Amino acid sequence: MTSSATTTWQHGCRAAVVSAATAVVLTSGVAFGPDASAAPVDPYEFAAAVDREAISDHLETFQQIADENEGNRADGSPGGVASADYIVQVLTEAGYAVEVQEFTTESGSESENIIASTPTGRDDNVAVFGAHYDSVPEGAGMNDNASGTAALLQVATELIATEPLNNQVRFTFWGAEETGLEGSAAYVDSLTDAELESLIVYYNYDMIGSPNYLIGVEDGKADSYNGAPLTEGSAAAMDLQTDYFDSIEQPWQPSEMCCTDYNPFHDAGIPIGGLYTGGREAPKTDEEYEKFGGVAGEFPDPNYHTAGDDLANVSLEAIDINTGVIAFAAASLGASSESINGIAPTEPTTSPSGSPSSSGSVPPSTSPSTPTSPPSSPPTTSSPPTSSSTSPEPSATPTPVRSTAPTTPSPEPVPDRKPFSGSMAETGAPALAVIGAGALAALTAGTLLLRRRP
Ligand SMILES: [Zn+2]
């Protein structure tokens, strides 16, 4: 992986701040609006309720964008720009004041990161969740990485309706990952030391719908990564995800970290984590087949970085499973980051626009056996709201910002979680034959040199 250290960064984020929409988005029959008396969301309920059908719709949109733009959504291309536009539109309609951070890539083309932070929550204690939205030029990039993008978009859309939060949750959508992690590197480079210190964790979702999937949790307990020890908190960040999987009896396995957008955060000393369902590193083993079904002896994603990475070759089942843990982590850390950085919940802070907040808080519910209702204990500390923003400030040299005026959110309540439908690939049923160990070894021998996610 080539370094992105030489990326040219045009200073600062441009925040297109619009009046915070008083959106009331309904999740699973329970409304969490701006009413300060609303009960905090339960992370388990939130995880189960995120609308998977809406994620499927996002995926279809990204495929359509590729179809209309020479089959890809590569960074800087019309398909890439249209993908970014769609993300901005969805986040704006959900009620976010979306920031578009423009930067110039090493190749000299223009790209942008899209950043949406919850209006409430401490901005000095921020959980960051990210996914890259660009594809390689060879294909539509539906697993890599419309999968992570679509899931994150929907979690963001629904989390804002659960406010007020204790901690800010920031959703980031990176450009120019496929050209060398340029978007995430530009973002990290743009942060001050204080802003970096405000980050609880960075979770990354890159390829979470591999058609022959593994449920891989990025290994926050490894001795080191990319030449440096993992930052303290990475192990707890992994536990937060695996405790959720354990609570729903979802098998998982550690995934060796490699070469995606958490690299710049790791290099900056931020705890990191994420999910990954596998590419072409190695064929699925017999043991993995026993855990996850699919097809032993075949790659988790044989279409990696090819024209075959399309809507027909994405596992909605894998995205469904992973969406739960993304939502769980977001809701949990929005309530408390104590399990990762020791900072106990405080009174929810007010948003810059002054929306009231007075409700209690939800410590992270990480016990695998207790999908619970919110605890009865009130906030235990009373740190004053932080008034000095640590968000990236607008640049002194303003550049155009796209319009992000929120529109009225859909009034339709989202009933119980909907199953995916449609013609997309379904995997996971352990109905296919396990190939012999000899064939497996032969396949493996020929593929170990392939690296994932350049
Ligand atoms: Zn990727």
UniProtKB/TrEMBL annotation:
Q: Name one GO molecular function term.
A: metalloexopeptidase activity
- Pfam families, per this entry? Peptidase_M28
Q: Which Gene3D superfamilies match?
A: Zn peptidases
Q: Where is the composition biased (Low complexity)?
A: 344-370, 383-401
Q: Where is the Peptidase M28 domain?
A: 113-326
Q: Which residues cross the membrane?
A: 428-450
The species this protein belongs to is Naumannella halotolerans
Task: Write the protein's name.
Answer: Peptidase M28-like protein
Q: Where is the composition biased (Pro residues)?
A: 371-382
**Which GO terms fall under biological process for this protein?**
proteolysis
- Give the UniProt keywords, A-Z: Membrane, Transmembrane, Transmembrane helix
**Annotated spans, Disordered:** 341-425
InterPro entries xrefs: M28_fam, Peptidase_M28
